[in-house]
Amino acid sequence: MQHKRGGKMPPLFYSKETEMSHSNNAYSPKSINDIVYGSDTAKELVSQLVTGLMPFPFSGVNGIIFYGPNGTGKSALARILPAAIDSFGAPNAAAVDYNFYKITATTDAKELIEKIAYQTQFMPLARFRYFIFDEFDLLNPRYLPSIKSVMNCDTSVFIMTTNSISKIENSIKSRSHLIAMPFAEANRWVPVMQSVLLDQKVLAPSEQYLCNIVTNCKYDARKIMGATLRLAFNLRSAGKIIPTTTQTNDALMIAA
């Protein structure tokens, strides 16, 4: 979840509102390597699928299901995958069109499936046609067999997220790679938080202090990033600013 390099850097002093607005895009993950994974197994499998080290789609398997609690990066990773898969994981891959569906209890499943079935009749402009279903388990179970049918299209990739893998029909799971997304341990977040604080030009506190923030945020990615930016604002207000002459290697010194 690193800052996007290049372009205009944020000013040294600005309001909290400007800070939070800047954060919305600057610190959102842009590649599969920006995700803070709670599992090395998940990270490795995603990399293998994207780079083609593990053929995908292959042998009737053209789905990916990310499952785990809220705040583990499932939705963010799902949005990143189309461009990553299409480019075999190339850096700075061009954006790829994808169809994103936020599933709720009121989603018209019949209309949704009809729309997808229609789209799969045509050849995609990219390597594949990509469909993302966020909170897939909320889809009316009556229509899950229909999803299984549209997944038979070998020119489409289906990416799903869910908090309840047990609610997903076995026939859909058998057509998909199942990737568990647990919470990341606090120490996995420390380098990311330090990078954000460095980008904000403030002195980072101790690693244990940052780990405590992660724990207080209950390991939720959204809360952790928000807390890190609030910390940067507070450190700036307290004068804990990196001197302009400080070298990058010294920038992560522990604040006094």
TrEMBL record:
MF GO annotations: ATP binding; ATP hydrolysis activity; DNA clamp loader activity
Nucleotide-binding in keyword set: yes
Domain AAA+ ATPase: 60-185
Keyword terms, alphabetized: ATP-binding, DNA replication, Nucleotide-binding
GO biological process: DNA repair; DNA-templated DNA replication
Keyword Acyltransferase appears in the UniProt entry: no
Name under which the protein is recorded: AAA family ATPase
